Amino acid sequence: MIDVIDRIRDIVGDSRIFPEESLKNYTTFRIGGKCRALVMPSTKEEIIKVVTLLRETNTNFFVMGNGSNLLVSDEGFDGIVVSLKFFKGIEVLEEDDKTFTVRVMAGELMSSVGNYLARQGVEGFEFATGIPGTIGGGVRMNAGAYGGELKDILVNITAIAEDNTVVTLSNEELELSYRTSILAKKNYICLDACFKLNKGDSLDIKAKIKEYANSRKEKQPLNYPSAGSTFKRPEGYIAAKLIDEAGLKGLQVGGAKVSEKHAGFVVNVGGATAKDVIELTDKVKEVVKEKNGVSLELEVVKLGF
């Protein structure tokens, strides 16, 4: 592992690799132990070289965006974490009176992209502007909110395939569906994504973004660390409603708590451990299954378990 870390250092430089780094402060849950090393490549070439090296040396690794849908084990992750947070950029590919096509690097925050597009008077991305994740992570899980999903506006992506070649995948080839894609099913890594949107009125677009932001603030427990929606929506049901009806709002294990503001969120009210979260979510799943016969599935990705 030391040799691999040294070889990665040769690729990204001393300032972008952190051996034995705690992942706690790199996730929105503020939970988790250390990884063997955290790497932060800033170019497409660096990412490809690092991923190729890790695969060729059979090194355990995980690619992370904003850490907003992630629960890291208290014991950490016995491998390399590749963070794409410094891999940013927005390129306008085509623009006319009605449409606007952009290519966005995987490390760009969806909030940054949404605000950029609003300034350009481009509509269609408002729903994603409040999602606290990156483009790469968003595409991988087909992120969505307020009736919109990335699949509605996505043209194609560039990704690193399992054989380390760089491929272009169309919207159809990505097999985008509720909170999943071919990227989640195969070992593909998103490098950038192309979106085609429509021109609109900048003031109207900004007003819609503000409306969605106010709605989130009103309905979601944004004052506590969390990983966002904790459970996937079961077909025909709403997870938060099932949890609320089961009387589980406010249920707490250690520092992990089912939010009293929105039952679909498990929040870190102070000093929560991954063990607390797992124990709490297991209890929620057990009670909901017992009372409603519905099996809840975690939306949060687990690392190091």
Structure commentary:
InterPro entries: FAD-bd_PCMH, FAD-bd_PCMH-like_sf, FAD-bd_PCMH_sub1, FAD-bd_PCMH_sub2, MurB, MurB_C, MurB_C_sf, Oxid_FAD_bind_N. Its cofactor is FAD. This is UDP-N-acetylenolpyruvoylglucosamine reductase. Helix content is about 30%, strand content about 25%. With about 300 residues, the chain is of the alpha+beta class. The chain has three domains: about 1-85, Uridine Diphospho-n-acetylenolpyruvylglucosamine Reductase, domain 2, CATH 3.30.43; about 90-210, Uridine Diphospho-n-acetylenolpyruvylglucosamine Reductase, domain 3; about 225-305, Alpha-Beta Complex (Uridine Diphospho-n-acetylenolpyruvylglucosamine Reductase, domain 1), CATH 3.90.78.10. Strands 6, 7, 8, 11, 12 and 13 form a six-stranded antiparallel beta sheet that branches. Strands 1-2-5-3 form a four-stranded mixed beta sheet, covered by helices on one side. The chain has a four-stranded antiparallel beta sheet with strand order 14-17-16-15. The mean pLDDT is about 95.
